[in-house]
Amino acid sequence: MSAQENQVALPLRNHTILGVCEGIGEDFGFNPIFLRIPLAASVIWNPIVAFGVYFALGAVVLVSRLLFPTPKPKSAPVSVEGSSAANEQNELAKAA
Q1: What is the pLDDT at residue 65?
Q2: Is residue 1 part of a domain?
Q3: How many CA atoms lie within 13 A of 94 on its CB side?
Q4: Residues 55, 63: contact at Cβ < 8 Å?
Q5: Tens-digit pLDDT profile for residues 24-68
Q6: Is-above-0.85 flag for pTM?
Q7: pLDDT given for residue 50 in this prediction
Q8: Domain for residue 5, yes or no?
Q9: The dihedral sign for the CA sequence 2, 3, 4, 9
Q10: Which residue segment(s) compose the domain that 82 sits in?
């Protein structure tokens, strides 16, 4: 099972509001705390603008996730021959 299959959607996680900072951090490859701190400071300075920017960024993340979803990795088919070779090696190890 890959890590992609057992992840909860960003808005449904307990530690996020809408997952905007985390989504942008994942997309651009940086720690989301670098976006959360200035956003929190801007909420103290001007909350209306900060929430407007936050929801606008949320809309951008939503559109980007809908238009360009991350491809799910295809699982490799399990070959019967490979598993019997592994069993044979295991049996030889037990015999020794």
Answers
A1: 85
A2: no
A3: 6
A4: no
A5: 888 888 998 999 899 999 999 999 999 999 999 989 888 988 888
A6: no
A7: 93
A8: no
A9: positive
A10: 10-95
